[in-house]
């Protein structure tokens, strides 16, 4: 209740010349008002302000400039040095009465001027904190309306609500704003215009919303080092007046994931990544399979952000953070995650002179606002990379050693690098190895052939040597040598 009556006290100072002797000035509890300047020919006057029906003296200034102030009003009143206007600070409910000013000039003859103002109350009824998506209703309640008095509204960004399609302004000055968001959190202003003068009345409005939505996807790349960070937190701390306990007002929540068709997984199948079990204390129940890290919930500033270290193509898709409140109210944030990936064809190792394709992709054709940039390894040359945009499919017709190394593919939108990914291409001289193999094989075959030939030749040679010896032996055997003529019988 304090919140309500204290804050929504608005100041409007608006001078309205009324038909009677009394002028009306608008003011709001807690605000400041300046009772307008009075014209007088001479400065040598005495000024006296009175208050209320009983004409209590508030402040008096004599012709020499000495002031006397009622002690009860001492810290709330001041008199302008240059004119005779009265400034009232921290207006109280009991101040909405008449203020009379008496100016007296004694030279050359006594002249007296009396002006009476009536402080009239303007109020904006309080609004309790509301969730994003709801309608905001404000009323600029002006007690006394005169012909020509106009009211209009300014948003916290000081935009005129007359130009806002979400707003409806009633004849009685009431304002309705449909489907508020976190941007509508802040001071709203009722502007009262009369006779060319403007007076402003401010009132705070609390809109509970999640962190601003991502209009663009979140870009990351395939890498064990990549960090996927999905933000989801309240744009303002939940007000304590919000049903006493913040935790009690939250009934549950979840992070869900719908894989992108490009990820090659089941499409349209919504997976629940983590569940928020209603408190107190609130706690996340995570699906450990996906390696998600849910930031610790803080009691004062609930932070439901999700992060994951190590990104794969399977992380492409739509993520939704949802928090449920009492009475089936839900706040949601959806975000799309795009994952950049690079691969080579036929493989990470290519042969000298072979055709090699490098592909940099999000898993689907790039939209026209996106482009890729290839950063070749050092000394790499002879590639059509001077022209922009670079192709997503880069063909190296005949790989050279210079094409080997670390290739980087960057994704850009309008002079902004969104993400990048790297791959190492290895070029090897495979044809040489083949010739080596062929030579070795040929040598082996020749060696075996030579071996066989040698064996055959040796055998033949042996045969040739053995044949005559056998003949001799036979000859010797046949002709049994008998001693002839040596015996003398
Ligand atoms: C409310 O605003 C949000 C964000 O501006 C928008 O996405 C949603 O469609 C709007 N809802 C309605 C009912 O207009
Ligand atoms: C929420 O938590 C994440 C990760 O723990 C952190 O990076 C981020 O700054 C936090 N945001 C707020 C608003 O506390
Ligand atoms: C490279 O891409 C072109 C065009 O898509 C294709 O014709 C060719 O077969 C690919 N080469 C390799 C080695 O994948
Ligand atoms: C890109 O920049 C141009 C001018 O620099 C701007 O007109 C255009 O809207 C921008 N596009 C995007 C998608 O931000």
From TrEMBL:
Keywords: Immunoglobulin domain, Membrane, Signal, Transmembrane, Transmembrane helix. The chain crosses the membrane at residues 434-458. Residues 1-21 form the signal peptide. Residues 108-206, 231-338, 353-424 form the Ig-like domain. Pfam families: ig, V-set. PANTHER family: T-CELL SURFACE GLYCOPROTEIN CD4 (PTHR11422:SF0). This is Ig-like domain-containing protein. It comes from Oncorhynchus tshawytscha. The lineage of its organism: Eukaryota, Metazoa, Chordata, Craniata, Vertebrata. The gene is cd4-1.
């Amino acid at each position: 209740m304090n919140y309500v009556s204290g804050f929504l006290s608005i100041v409007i100072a608006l001078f309205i010349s009324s038909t009677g002797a009394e002028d009306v000035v608008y003011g709001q509890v807690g605000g400041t008002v300046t009772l307008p300047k009075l014209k007088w020919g001479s400065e040598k006057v005495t000024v006296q302000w009175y208050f209320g029906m009983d004409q209590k003296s508030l402040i008096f200034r004599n012709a020499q400039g000495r002031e006397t102030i009622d002690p009860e009003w001492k810290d709330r009143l001041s008199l302008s040095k240059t004119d005779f206007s009265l400034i009232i600070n921290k207006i109280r409910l009991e101040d909405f009465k008449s203020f009379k000013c008496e100016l007296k000039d004694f030279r050359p003859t006594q002249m007296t001027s009396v002006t009476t103002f009536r402080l009239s109350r303007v109020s904006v009824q309080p609004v309790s904190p509301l969730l994003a998506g709801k309608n905001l209703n404000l009323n600029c309640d002006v007690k006394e309306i005169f012909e020509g008095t106009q009211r209009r509204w300014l948003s916290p960004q000081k935009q005129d609500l007359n130009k806002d399609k979400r707003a409806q302004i009633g004849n009685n000055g009431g304002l309705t704003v449909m489907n508020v968001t976190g941007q509508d959190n802040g001071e709203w202003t009722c502007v009262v215009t009369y006779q060319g003068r403007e007076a402003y009345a401010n009132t705070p409005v609390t809109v509970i919303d999640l962190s601003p939505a991502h209009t663009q996807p979140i870009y990351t790349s395939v890498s064990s080092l990549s960090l996927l960070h999905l933000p989801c937190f309240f744009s303002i701390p939940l007000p304590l007046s919000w049903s006493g306990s913040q935790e009690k007002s939250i009934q549950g929540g979840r992070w869900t994931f719908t894989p992108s068709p490009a990820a090659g997984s089941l499409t349209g199948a919504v997976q629940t990544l983590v569940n928020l079990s209603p408190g107190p204390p609130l706690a996340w129940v995570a699906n450990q399979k996906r390696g998600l890290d849910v930031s610790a919930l803080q009691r004062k500033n609930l932070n439901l952000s999700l992060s994951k270290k190590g990104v794969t193509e399977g992380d492409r898709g739509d993520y939704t953070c949802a928090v449920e409140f009492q009475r089936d109210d839900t706040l949601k944030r959806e975000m799309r995650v795009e994952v950049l990936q690079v691969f080579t064809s036929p493989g990470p190792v290519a042969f000298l002179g072979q055709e090699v394709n490098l592909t940099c992709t999000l898993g689907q054709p790039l939209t026209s606002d996106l482009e890729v940039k290839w950063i070749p390894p050092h000394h790499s040359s002879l590639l059509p990379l001077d022209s922009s945009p670079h192709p997503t499919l880069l063909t190296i017709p005949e790989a050279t050693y210079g094409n080997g190394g670390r290739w980087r593919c960057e994704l850009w939108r309008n002079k902004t690098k969104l993400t990048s990914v790297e791959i190492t291409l290895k070029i090897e001289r495979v044809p040489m190895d083949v010739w080596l193999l062929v030579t070795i094989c040929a040598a082996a075959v020749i060696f075996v052939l030579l071996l066989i030939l040698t064996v055959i030749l040796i055998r033949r040679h042996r045969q040739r040597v053995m044949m005559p010896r056998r003949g001799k032996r036979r000859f010797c055997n046949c002709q049994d040598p008998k001693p002839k003529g040596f015996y003398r019988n």
